[in-house]
Amino acid sequence: MSVGDLCWGGVPVGWRRRHLLGIEGMSADEITLALDQAERFKSVLVRDKGYEYCDRKVPLLAGKTCVNLFFENSTRTKTSFTLAARRLGMDVVDFSASTSSLSKGETFIDTVKNLEAMQVDAVVVRHSCPGTAMLLSENIRGHVLNAGDGAHEHPTQALLDILTIRQRLGRIKGLTVALVGDIAHSRTARSNIWGLRALGANVILCGPSTLVSKRWESLGVVVSYSLDEILGKVDVFNLLRIQFERQVIRPFPSTREYSHLYGMDTARLSRAKPEVLIIAPGPINRGLEVTPDVADGQHSAILDQVTNGVAIRMATLWMCLNSKSI
């Protein structure tokens, strides 16, 4: 497939978003457009056999500049956004908050406006405060992509999760997907719920009652406090990390107890559906949410998710920067 094949007719008809702020409010058609475009990019960047990236690039955004504005630590998201932008031919600037004028009292908005004045076209932002991406989109002319805002949303993570499920199982509609773990603090859970529900999946939230409120059922999901009770009903388990850094108090007596009640191990996997899929947004805590043999086993698509992350972020960067919406 050539570069020309990738950009036939420009951005796919139906995509009108200048920014990617969240999955909430996106239609099934919009989500599918992003997934399909990511598939096109992946078909060029990945060899037919295996998942090793080639040296080939598709410089559809040559001459554009992207700044990574990360106020929280990140490995997969920041690196894959950087790779995605560079594979599209963009110049990439990694912003360091600790060495910026923010430490001198400059406001967040003034900082970004100064970056924009240097002809930055896109801002990829991660921040601990929910709504940060929305705030930026209302104050700058460039394109904003949300790389995680507090416990609110993480749209590209949800898209790559859903893409991985679709690649492995061939569909989303009608599947039952369980999000297991720290739902209360998970932006990934929120974005996955919106995306999976829009595409017709059934969603179960599972974890301790201190981390999974019954109020989540208002979003059209099922809440369960027993992993063992849902094992045979689920097609995909998305194992979420326990986010100790966001917790004020420990939500369960010990990590040993959590692992005993909610950890995915070989014994539990043997009671699940034969073709069950295991994914996790990462980083994973081996031995807590999932045992090493399951994380590295044949049912796991955790590394496939990482590969798909570059393709999804290429797709969303290209689509947002070429959107005709004002």
Walk me through what this model shows.
The protein is an alpha/beta fold and 326 residues long. It has two domains: 3-153 and 306-321, Aspartate/ornithine carbamoyltransferase (Rossmann fold); 155-305, Rossmann fold (3-Layer(aba) Sandwich). 36% of the residues lie in helices and 13% in strands. The chain contains twelve helices and nine strands. It has helices at 3-6, 28-45, 76-87, 108-117, 132-137, 155-169, 187-198, 227-230, 255-262, 266-270, 292-295, 302-321, and strands spanning 65-70, 91-95, 122-127, 143-149, 176-180, 202-206, 222-224, 236-239, 277-279. The strands form two sheets. It has a five-stranded parallel β-sheet with strand order 7-6-5-8-9. A four-stranded parallel β-sheet has the order 2-1-3-4. Mean pLDDT is 89; it is low at 1-5.
Task: Summarize the entry for a quick read.
By secondary structure, the protein is an alpha/beta fold. It has helices spanning 3-6, 28-45, 76-87, 108-117, 132-137, 155-169, 187-198, 227-230, 255-262, 266-270, 292-295, 302-321, and strands spanning 65-70, 91-95, 122-127, 143-149, 176-180, 202-206, 222-224, 236-239, 277-279. Mean pLDDT is 89; it is low at 1-5.
Task: Map the helices and strands.
Blueprint: H1 3-6, H2 28-45, E1 65-70, H3 76-87, E2 91-95, H4 108-117, E3 122-127, H5 132-137, E4 143-149, H6 155-169, E5 176-180, H7 187-198, E6 202-206, E7 222-224, H8 227-230, E8 236-239, H9 255-262, H10 266-270, E9 277-279, H11 292-295, H12 302-321
Parallel strand pairs: 1-2, 1-3, 3-4, 5-6, 5-8, 6-7, 8-9
